Every structure is written in structure tokens, then in C-alpha cells.
Amino acid sequence: MLANMKSFLQAIINVSEKAANIARACRREVQLFRLLVQEKSNEEKNQRFVQDFKTLADVLIQETVKHELGSKFPELIGFIQGEESNVFTNTLGETIEVKIMASQEDTAELLSKVLDGDRSAADLLALEVHRDVIIDSDIPQELNDTNNLLPMDTIGIWIDPIDSTAEYIQGTECSPDSHDIYVCGLRCVTVLIGAYNRKSGEPMIGVVNQPFFLENGDSWRGTFYWGVSCEGTVRNSFSAPPSPTSTVVLSGSETDALKENLAKHFELVEAAGAGYKLLSVARGLADIYILSRGSTFRHL
To answer: Quick count: other Cβ atoms within 10 Å of Cβ 220?
Structure first.
């Protein structure tokens, strides 16, 4: 089956925003936030939860993306993957597979089992999962042309539901540096959804959603970016190509020797989140993202 490139991209953007809504809800709603902040060391966290709530937030976003895209594009079922296992064991020893049910009520019922009967938290999560989300996007009309059709039986999806989880949990606030790059905090958190050719591994479409882009009183507003490079079409949501900045963005865990060598030629900015660092390069805030360790990988 062939799918319209514009409608496929719009579907990914919509579900990225639903994922962002879930991420924001987990920090905004008191009942959910109490669970979220329990992610500490094994000794400190509430032993009532066998798997921490942070992991459930990750998994719920991942399964929501899988459900939404699989429902709209059945050819993708079985080829939408993420980094989290969706199997949980509650304190009663029950093994539960987290998945999105047909109704909000059924999803809440399943989630309450994972959360050891905390129905209030389960209801709040299920509400966001089943909420209709359609976000305005400035996708060029040319992606709606009949020559921009995608063979869905060749496409795979990879999801990183909450990138920079530590910053998401801690929820600290940082000021941007002179290049407008945030080195830590909620602004480094991203939801990453990518479509790729599952035969060659070549990336085709990517969406990066920043759930915590702009603080607005007691709430947050997000933003998103997209890019397309497939079937001879190359487009993205950036208004202009980036200009050189002589800046390298990297993780603070890189070796001192590497940093010393780079500092001879570039200004270094240590920032959280692999997705956020890549986004900083795409936005032209930095020239290069350097990663010398095996903590981040390309999925094939």
C-alpha cells in the first residue's frame, strides 16, 4: 500500500504531540508527579513499585505511538519499535503487558494493575492516551503530490519516547549559554520518532518534539521540528540553513583528553540529551555534535 507523504508526516507530528502531552501531564498533575519523583536510588525510592514510574511513562508513550501509527497504517504493525520493554510485574507478582486498549476505560483498568490499584493516576494517564490530538503544521503542499507516495511495506519506525530521562525526572531549570543552548533541564528533553527504510536502514522522516520548550506560568508549551529525505524529496521545518558557529556540543562524560584537543579549535558546550544535541546542530546553534562513546547508537 502507498501512503501520502504529507499525511504520514502529519500523523507522526500528531502522535509526537500526544506523547508530549503525556510527558507534560506526568509533571503537571500532582498525582502523577508524586509517582514521577519517586525515581531515586533503589534504597530511596518507594518500594511499593517494582518498576519505577519513570519507566512506565516511557513505555506508555512508546506504546501510544505504536498504537496510533499502527491503527492508521496497518502495514507498519510489527515494524514499530522502541527501546523499552512493555512488560511489568506489580507487587502482587502479576505480569502485565502495557498496551493501549480500545477504550479509555479499558486502558485505565490495565494501567491501574501496573500501578497497584492507583486508579486516580491510571485515569489521568488514560485520558491523555485517548485524547484526540491534531496539531497545526506548516507542511509544504508539494508533499501532498501524487509523486510523493511512500510504500508502507518498506518502512520501519523507531521511537525514543523520553530522551534525556534524567533531566525529565529532576526537572531543574537552567539558563541558556551564549549560543542559546540549554546545557541541562527540561528543555533538553525530547520525544524522537523516526521512519526508516527497513531494508537499508536509511532514515526517511524524522520528528523531534520538545515538550518543554517555553515556560508559560505554571505550565509548559512545546514545539516540534521535522525533516524528510526520501523518494528524491528533501525538506525540513527549518527556515534557513545553519550558519557556522565554531561550536561543538558534546556530553560532559567525554574524556578530558578529547575535550582538551577540541578546545584548541572550537568552543565547547556540554549539554544533556542526545536528541537535544542533534537538534542544536540542526537549528544552527552548534556546528558539530561529537560522541565518542557507545551509549548512543543507530538502530538497524
So the answer is: 19
Q: Which residues, other chains included, contact 291 with Cβ-Cβ below 8 Å and sequence gap of 6+?
A: 250, 251, 254, 274
Helix (H) or strand (E) holding 197: strand 190-197
How far is 247 from 203, CA to CA, in rounded Å? 26
**What are the mean pLDDT values of the chain's consecutive 10-residue runs (300 residues total)?**
90 97 89 63 42 74 96 96 82 84 97 88 94 91 81 94 89 83 94 95 96 87 95 86 85 91 93 94 93 64
Quote the crossing angle between the two packed helices 119-130 and 53-72, to the nearest 10°. 30
DSSP, collapsed to helix, strand or coil, labels residue 205 as strand
Sign of CA dihedral 64, 131, 12, 163: negative
Residue 35's identity, in one-letter code, is L
* Cα angle: 97, vertex 29, 80; to 5 degrees: 35
Q: What is the pTM of this model?
A: 0.89
Query: CA-CA distance, 11 to 24, in Å (whole number)?
Result: 20
Give the residue from 203, 263, 259 showing the smallest Cα distance to 236.
203
